[in-house]
Amino acid sequence: xxxxxxxEIIVEAGKGGSGCVSFHREKFIPKGxxxxxxxxxGGDVYIYANASLNHLSKFLSNQYFKAEDxxxxxxxxxxxxxxxxxxxxxxxxxxxxxKENNQVIGELDYPEKKILVAKGxxxxxxxxxxxxxxxxxxxxxxxxxxxxxxxxxxxxKLIADVGFVGLPNAGKSSLLKSLTNSSPKIADYPFTTLNxxxxxxxxxxxxxxxxxLLADIPGIIEGASKGMGLGISFLxxxxxxxxxxxxxxINSMSxxxxxxxxxxxxxxxxxxxxxxxxxxxxxxxxxxxxxxxxLNFLYKNFIENCKSFQSNIETIPVIFLSAKxxxxxxxxxxxxxxxxxxxxxxxxxxxxxxxxxxxxx
Length: 361
Hints:
This protein is α/β, with parallel strands linked by helices. It contains 5 helices and 14 strands.
């Protein structure tokens, strides 16, 4: 199924139940007063952040959601049953926008956060509320009020500590797999990943455990920021990462041009992206016959060629590695944990999860 990160849905809260018209009838009380009960309230609609989801594809088959209506009131002043609330699950990082006024309703920025998006209608009053000295037998009751109905735009922006960007076939998915336990779909051909992939990087050190959430952003091509290829669909997912890792294929004949394309596309989408901290990775060193002298030459040549469009290029960490053989991977791991302060986003998520589990016990 294709990756979906934007979609519009319609939500409708439940209608309130009607009030009841009834009169008390009991042996020896032939002319009891009005006793029609109130209608139940209509169910509310909530949207809920589910950590197990990472796309909105399930909404392709259904874009209309309605909560349960309230039940009518009954005799003997019995209130009708309230309608059940409806809870719609979406991925963490989803922004909710009211299409009526284009106002942001809220953002589901951590797991199990829940936002009320449509209120259920109030139940109608039963006829006993309307008895007066002038009208002791009211023959009417209120109808329930309709629930709110809204068109809501769901806009998913993945949240991660680190985002991998690179041209197709640079080896981002393989790198994610080497660093984490994720199993992204990987193939040896020059086409981009179709879906962003997430994985958790864990570091065990001195009996302490640290975590980072990594995101492999589908491959960018030149012109992605103008809508060419798949890149434009995924550039927004880089907005929330703390560090951008530029993954370059060391076998490319134009490393500096590849890097320049990536930077240009990010800048065209948002200049703020280039202000983020970054690391440059030269991947696939297993495919060349290299020694320290060759790597130093490649590094110096790359730096000199990049100075024309990035003055601070010498301050950016550059790491040589092979995602396939894992040679040099430990250097990247150390650099990532060095650059990301405690707590990371992944560590915040884990803390919230543990707190929620303890509250359930």
